[in-house]
Amino acid sequence: MPNFIPYNLNQMTMVAIEFNRQIQPGTFEFALNYLIEHKLDLSIFNGGYKNDRTGRPAYDTAILLKIILFAYSKGITSSREIQSCCEHNVIFMALTCHTVVHFTTIAAFVSRFSKEMITLFEQVLLVCHEQGLLGMNCLRLMGATCLLPAILYGVQY
User: Fold this and answer.
1) How many degrees, rounded to 5, is the angle at CA 45 between CA 92 and CA 144?
2) Euclidean distance between CA atoms 29 and 59, whole angstroms
3) Predicted confidence band at 143 (pLDDT cuts at 50, 70, 90)?
4) Stronger pLDDT, 121 or 154, i.e. the higher one
5) Residue 154 pLDDT exceeds 60
6) Confidence tier at 14 by pLDDT (50, 70, 90)
7) Residue 139 parent element (H or E)
8) Which string of b and e fits 100-137 if b means at least 16 CB within 10 Å?
9) Which residue did the predictor score with more confidence, 43 or 92?
């Protein structure tokens, strides 16, 4: 009988993580991060904030969009589950620079800016499709099932 080194999945470890190395080129999260940081105009969200002189600083719209749109692309629509992903999933941590947004903030953002988010997500999907990063599968978007061909080609079902 062979003698193997034992292993245990039920253990914790301290690991230093470079967040910028977790988002690999050629992945959806890389494209999403790049588009939100460098290409998309996020000023359409600025009118919803009234804290320029007083009040607590708000979470950056870019961070909120990254976690929400990435979660939706994975079929995760629950704001509580998105918060949990920000606490435990390395890709979510990298997208947010380890910012953990409370689920009520996520839900309020989605409720307030759902139309703007759909428009941006469609732009992200089109670019990712052009780059060959998407299959032609179903996904959940804003609580409704969307077929990628319908978004990408305007096909009516």
Assistant:
1) 60
2) 20
3) very low
4) 121
5) no
6) confident
7) strand 138-141
8) ebebeebbebbeebeeebeebbeebbebbbeeebbeee
9) 92
Q: Spell out the residues 6+ positions from residue 100 whose beta carbon is closer than 8 angstroms to its own.
A: 83, 86, 87
The structure tokens listed for 83 are 């918060």
Task: Give the C-alpha separation, 90 to 142, whole Å.
Answer: 23
3-state secondary structure 62-94: HHHHHHHHHHHHCCCCCHHHHHHHHHHCHHHHH
HSE (CB half, 13 Å, CA atoms) of 153? 7
- For the question of whether the overall pTM of this predicted structure is more than 0.85, the answer is no
Residue 152, pLDDT score: 45
Task: Give the DSSP H/E element, type plus range, for residue 99.
Answer: none
Q: Which amino acid is at 87?
A: E
Spatial distance between the Cα atoms of 73 and 69, rounded to a whole number of angstroms: 6
Copy the structure tokens of residue 142: 């804003």
* Residues recorded for the chain: 157
Non-local (6+) Cβ contacts of 89 within 8 A are none
